[in-house]
Design a protein that fits this description.
The protein has 147 residues and is mostly helical. 45% of the residues lie in helices and 6% in strands. It has a three-stranded mixed beta sheet. It is globular and about 45 Å long.
Length: 147
């Protein structure tokens, strides 16, 4: 776990999302200006009926998708999530680098993606550089300097 505590599946998922956002922003800061490559992350919505929750109690696996569909309105089908991920490549409005794209937690037909603000942890440049250096060391790569 990123905080050194015992493994918890939900926390591991959240930590991995945070690390992905931090790494994307670090890639943006290091390489976007010199390459023009767009680095971004996205949240297509809550895809509540996938194997992501395979280690959760069976009751949760049954109830959570129903709550997302019928109460919170946050449920997104696997095909719709896939369409949203695919939109990032050709869509002119989603070509901004260094941002996190979202369609929000409440799903509405035809809703456009928007750049969502990130937490203080996700935008901490020092910690993002530390994550980069740690990752580079773990994979045996020399650190590539930010330009």
């Amino acid at each position: 776990m990123i905080d050194g505590k015992p493994f918890k599946p939900g926390k591991a998922y959240k930590d991995s999302k945070l690390a992905c956002m931090m790494m994307s922003r670090e890639l943006h800061s290091r390489f976007h200006d010199s390459t023009g490559i767009v680095f971004s992350t996205l949240y297509p919505g809550c895809v509540a009926d996938t194997p992501l929750f395979r280690n959760a109690p069976k009751a949760f696996q049954t109830i959570f998708p129903r709550v997302q569909k019928n109460i919170t309105g946050g449920y997104v089908s696997q095909p719709l999530a896939g369409e949203r991920v695919a939109l990032v490549v050709p869509h002119n409005n989603i070509k901004k680098s260094g941002v996190h794209w979202s369609w929000g937690n409440r799903q509405r037909e035809g809703r456009e993606a928007f750049a969502q603000s990130l937490s203080e942890k996700a935008t901490d440049a020092t910690r993002s550089r530390e994550l980069w250096d740690l990752t580079a060391g773990l994979v045996g790569m020399e650190t590539v300097s930010a330009e």
